[in-house]
Write a structure and sequence with these properties.
Largest sheet: 6 strands, mixed
Strand content: 15-25%
Oligomer: single chain
Helix content: 40-55%
Number of strands: 11
């Protein structure tokens, strides 16, 4: 997608090209490549275009990344534009700027713009995260007013390291999907398979890890059409998730809505949503709120033995733990992790398919022991889980299968 800010006689109009890439966070990033020039006259139009792209990233649940390597900028214009744009994004993911020219980096840093993070390159940032992963806990908070503008905060390091760990867990499934496509369509190498997977992921706004898992578990196609006779399905009637004009095609937006509704129902300060990856039969952290970094690291690593989630998944029914310190259901490791994140009571609700299989889990935490959902809250949690199951079934049978059909058509044409 391209957008430009142009005025008569301007020698180099500003152009923004957007594309979805696997990056930050694990769900992916919306990379906005800018080229051209920006001065005071073009700043207003550029700000409007940028806000449109950022809204697109928010709707899709993607992290916005602005590549400014090829931009000539008027200092005051870019600072004013970035300040106004990021101020309206309160509560949204920070805007990451990569490859900005030295003068721009210094100006943005000295202006202390909230909601903006600066990196030399995306690769360099990831390498720094990997190097810092083993020593983050021992280092003091970075408080210098003249800190290196390329140095991320330690909270950011924790987030990005978790993203890297999640990507490591996904890597074997990506490899399986690449091998499947290479064998099925006679592709010359794994890089070709990955490029087609990534293009399909971007086109249908399906996270790459969700797409590759579907490639691995779906029955092989037998003909020109992967799923012959399939008809479009109407969006199910959603009693809770249908509020607020949410677009069911955007997976990240809907998963975030599940957590927001759960926190509101339980009047809980913390919680998270896990989904089952069918390719590896493992729980994957989808979204979270109010949990400590150490606890989230445990979730990302997939350590679910001795947890309420493991019991709820196995039994197919909700699990309440009103007293974390004494409940025999929890393992010692799980108990310590919950107490360290401030959780003394929790409620976990499984998301069950029409066949009764657990496809996800919704968990909320409370800081006070003895907390149990009221009957009205328990009923609302049940409705939310049913809504989530209905939406996931529709998404998998509509958006995800559309992506697989596109993948098959493209590779079939290329092989013929």
């Amino acid at each position: 997608m391209k957008a430009s800010s142009e005025r008569p006689g301007a020698p180099a109009p500003l152009v923004i090209e957007s594309s979805v890439v696997e990056g930050l966070p694990a769900e992916g990033a919306l990379l906005l490549r800018m080229s051209g020039s920006l001065d005071a006259d073009g700043a207003q139009a550029w700000a409007k275009e940028l806000r449109g792209h950022l809204e697109q990233a928010d709707r899709a649940g993607l992290r916005p990344v602005l590549d400014m390597a090829h931009v000539q900028l008027g200092g005051a214009a870019v600072l004013r534009t970035l300040s106004e744009t990021t101020r309206t994004r309160s509560g949204r993911p920070d805007l990451i700027i990569v490859r900005a020219r030295p003068g721009v980096r210094e100006a943005v840093h000295l202006a202390r713009l909230h909601g903006v993070q600066l990196y030399a390159t995306l690769d360099e940032a990831l390498r720094e995260l990997a190097r810092a992963a083993s020593r983050v806990e021992e280092l003091p908070a970075w408080r210098s007013q003249m800190a290196d503008p390329l140095r991320p905060s330690y909270q950011d390091l924790h987030r990005e390291v978790r993203a890297l760990r999640a990507r490591v867990r996904t890597a074997p499934v990506i490899g399986m999907a690449q091998g499947t496509l290479m064998t099925r369509y006679g592709l010359p190498d794994s890089g070709t398979a990955f490029r087609v997977l990534r293009e399909t992921s971007q086109r249908f706004n399906v996270p790459l890890r969700v797409l590759v898992s579907a490639v691995v578990v779906a029955r092989p196609p037998d003909g020109a059409v992967w799923f012959p006779g399939r008809r479009p399905l109407p969006v199910p009637r959603l009693r809770i998730l249908g509020r607020g004009g949410r677009d069911p095609r955007y997976r990240g937006q809907m998963i975030d809505a599940v957590l927001r509704e759960a926190l509101a129902i339980g009047r809980a300060p913390a919680g998270y949503v896990l989904c089952v990856d069918p390719a590896v039969n493992a729980l994957m952290l989808e979204t979270h709120y109010g949990c400590t970094d150490a606890f989230l690291d445990q979730l990302v690593r997939g350590r679910d033995d001795g947890t309420a989630e493991a019991v709820a998944r196995a039994r197919g029914r909700r699990v309440s733990v009103p007293d974390v310190p004494t409940d025999a259901l929890l393992s010692d490791d799980s108990r310590r992790a919950l107490l360290a994140t401030g959780a003394h009571a929790l409620h976990c609700v499984p998301v069950l398919s029409s066949a009764g299989a657990c496809t996800g889990l919704i968990t909320v935490h409370w800081p006070d022991a003895g907390h149990r959902p009221t009957p009205a809250q328990a009923k609302a949690f049940g409705l939310l889980a049913a809504d989530t199951a209905a939406w996931l079934a529709w998404y998998h049978r509509s958006i995800l299968l559309n992506a697989l059909e596109h993948l098959h058509r493209r590779l079939t044409r290329a092989a013929s």
